[in-house]
Amino acid sequence: MTEQTWQYRTPRHRLVLWVSWLCFVALCVFCWQVMTQDTIWYFVTDAPRQAADLGSRMIPPRWSYLEKLWLPLWDTLNIATLGTLLGVLFAIPVAFLAASNTTPSRLFVRPIALFIIVASRSINSLIWALLLVSIIGPGLLAGIIAIGLRSIGFVAKLLYEAIEETDTIQIEAITATGASRAQILNYAIVPQILPAFCGISVFRWDINIRESTILGLVGAGGIGVQLQASLNTLAWPQVTMIFIVILATVVISEWVSAKVRHAII
Amino acid sequence: MLSVSNVSKTYAAGDKALDDVSFTIPAGQVVGLIGPSGAGKSTLIRCVNRLVEPTSGTITLGDTPITGLSVSDLRSVRRRIGMIFQEYALVERLTVMENVLSGRLGYVSFWRSLLRRFPAVDVQKAYALLDRVGLMEHASKRADALSGGQRQRVGIARALEQDPELLLVDEPTASLDPKTSRQIMRLLIEICNERQLPAIINIHDVVLARQFTERLIGLQAGRIVFDGAPSELDETVLTRIYGEEDWTTLDKETEAA
Fold first, then answer.
1. Of B78, B92, B110, the CB nearest to A177
2. Per-residue pLDDT averaged across A69-96, rounded?
3. What is the ipTM, given to two decimal places?
């Protein structure tokens, strides 16, 4: 038997790989030039001193400011929770219309559902809030709807993927009993996607708590309004206090969402 | 009585799964459907309740022509046909009782089934069936908490909960160990005899098929190449169905069983 040499890559493959790496490095060099041409290097070298200066003005936090933050914090939690509920409520039908195994029409309904998902996902909550504040005025409602609109796409996308991944044999078995479409949904599909659905909703609620803390920057209510006011008046100790409150809230919400998801699965 | 005449099925990709298949099954007869993988066994039984749409041919159950029914009429004929699956096909996250009661979905309204308020008769029947298959104490467990053999018993109870006139059984033992396989086959045959229930059982285990069924149909590349009593299944027939192989050991196994 003749000696065979084995090579991991063909010569052609190796050439392509080398050229790709070369292009990548060239791109990096080009990007660095673009990035640095408008940089004023004096400011960059001065940065540590500036940071230290800002830091010294932010410390210590103004603890007495805390009592004025409880109400905005409560508003923020409400925006996140009600917004998530609103989003989930609309996301459920959208997901079933978008999943290729449950949609009534792949040709007409599914593209519309997918468009709703993409439209909702492509616009940040902050932008939604900006638009809504100018439409329905500043306040909690604008924040709730902004969070809701952004959540529809996120929840619907993950949910329709879960629907498409369901076990077809279980669906076949329920179909074979003579069940109607609605009954098949209820008996074969819903039990399979329920854990995913709960996990997705809690995960989105957790994200929404973080997002709703900044909605106040554009006037959509919550703790962001205080942040905006403190920044405008250069009240740095208050800003620090708000950061601490936001951090604590996010940590707690992450803990809650991890617990809930663990309990479901 | 089930009659299948000139049924063919060509899949969209162009594969011919069934080619002019015809047979009839009288009341109370248990038929084993054997053949190599890809011979069209699964396609054939799925054509009977139209989980797979046959390309041509007619299938009638009693006086009802199954082929050509509208969607709503199809539901009412599906509920007359019980189906049992290889991987049990239970809804894993529902309880055993919900799985058995799902056999009544073709009979109850959506709201009743949504609220799990099945008629008392149905619930009594479900309990009686769970008792019959020996799973009374597992009624409120989740289906995924049971072993393979137990799950297949739930699958049988679900099919019987439909009060079927025909059972379609797709590889009931393929996921089970030899002992459990025999217990499940015995249970199936007993139940068919008790109720004078005709059944088509897809089975790749020839030894089991010979042991438990009264008639065998051999399928090869979508065509029927054998239809007769298990005793007629000799080496030439096995070769016709499965191809050339040394079949002598298989014969000994059957005698031993």
1. B78
2. 92
3. 0.90
